[in-house]
Amino acid sequence: MNHILRVVGEMFPDAHCELHHSNPFELTIAVLLSAQCTDETVNKVTATLFQKYRTPEDYLAVPLEELEGDIRRIGLFRNKAANIQKLSRLLIDDYGGEVPHEHEELTKLPGVGRKTANVVVSNAFGVPAIAVDTHVERVSKRLGIAKPDDSVLEVEKKLMKLVPRDLWTETHHRLIFFGRYHCKAQNPACPVCPLLDVCKEGKQRLKSAATGKPVTKKKKLTSKG
User: Fold this and answer.
1) Is the pLDDT of residue 221 over 70?
2) Which first-to-last residue range defines the signal peptide (predicted)?
């Protein structure tokens, strides 16, 4: 694990949250929108969304159909629009219009799962956390940190056990960058990977490429907000 941390740290020393936001509320909305959608698309939508809507009250001041239209380019936009309005109502009624700092309270918000809560507490409030998205899950399983059939929660627990707590947040970002820009789901850069020595799948891919035999398919990765 120390070897992996050192290598990804050297590769992506400035890894960070790529969702554009200026406060905890905007970050919460952006992460909610990012489920099954790229950060790039979310940023294009929130560039205008966050100009129109600045507070929970703003999201409740328009018909649901109008909000749906504003985020139509986002996958599952109808469900997400409904969750944004429910979340906004709950923030006003129970939290004085402010995003709560506690992980447990965040997961009570509509559309906010464990991953989203981890992203918010770590990036908005400086609380160490490891959010396991599809990139972190894929990389962790390929590098043998977790087993192929481990659940998202099991992957998170194993990372929390192996990585020093003060490195949780930066490790989360670096593993995302490693998975997003290097160890991609399709066509990972195995031939030039500095972690090939600890990656059984990478070695198998190179061997298969040399022999012409396909890589054995593994269990499909699933990660929810």
Assistant:
1) no
2) none
Alpha carbons within 13 A on the beta-carbon side of 72: 4
Q: Which of 80, 133, 150, 158 is catalytic?
A: 133
Q: Band of the pLDDT at 216, cuts 50, 70, 90? A: low
Catalytic residue chosen out of the listed positions 80, 115, 141, 158: 115
Please state the separation of Cα 48 from the chain's center in Å: 22
- Annotated ligand binding at 37? The verdict is no
Active site annotation includes 115: yes
Question: Six-digit token pair at 167?
Answer: 């490195």
Q: Is 199 one of the annotated binding-site residues?
A: yes
pLDDT at 210: 81
DSSP H helix total and E strand total for the chain: 12, 0
Could you give the residue ranges of the DSSP H alpha helices within 18-75? 24-33, 39-52, 56-60, 64-70
Lowest mean pLDDT among 61-75, 82-96, 129-143, 208-222: 208-222
User: What global pTM score does this model have?
Assistant: 0.87
What b/e string do you get for 162-193 counting C-beta neighbours within 10 Å, with b at 16 or more? ebeeeebbbbbbbbbbbbbebbeeeebebeeb
Q: Is 17 marked within a binding site?
A: no
The gap between the terminal CA atoms of the chain, to the nearest Å, is 26
CA angle 216, 173, 148 (to 5 degrees): 25
